[in-house]
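Why does residue order matter? Because the sequence determines the fold. Keep that principle in mind as you read this record.
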Amino acid sequence: MKNCVLAILLMTAASSVLCRAQSTLDDLLKKAQQATQSTNSSGRGLGLSNDKITAGLKQALQISTGKAVAATGRPDGFLKNAAIKILLPDKLRTVGNGLRMVGMGSQVDALEVGMNRAAEQAAPAAKQIFINALTRMTFADARQILSGGDTAATDYFKRSSTDQLTAAFTPIVHKSMENVGVIRQYDQMMQNPVAASFSKNQNLNLDNYVVGKTLDGLFYMLGQEEKNIRHNPAAQTTTLLKQVFGGKL
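Structure:
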């Protein structure tokens, strides 16, 4: 009888050990599966060939850069877009406020309109520069952009294209501001006694300011387009884009 009881106790203990072991194994398997699913869901384009990833990304960037240039390089592309509208430089804000107070706000408005028109005329020059940057893109660049943040591609263009964009925009902005009278308007505004009293020792290169703001606006719009393609299925308009950005393997 004692032997029977001992055998039953041993069997129960063994069964308990086996159950705990199985439970631990199940937990490990579940955790491994969850980790795999997490990796797959966060890593877009996994399982695709290098060529397909690069082609898909370049296709997406051709679309997004084209839309960004089209949105900014048209009448009112800057002026009527509150997110990128070029306002008076910080150094001239006090001057502008002073002129508005004495009924000369129209001069300030004319200057702002002219700066935005110059930016709108310069923006189309970015199209070919962006295309050139795409031709230089390596697979390593593409993989980094694909797995990067929401504006990783925009950051790539900033790194690879800012110098060329600045060089291309500068003469266009300068000529445009001359044509629309910005330089004349600026000079007239600064000759006003009210403006002169506020602007002593204010060194400002208006061309450089407008070029810089044109770049800021263009890259802002490009970032918005990039986010849209990454997260909005409706913006993934081709099979290749759906595969690369939609996480379809």
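Residues 133 and 160 are 7 Å apart (CA to CA).
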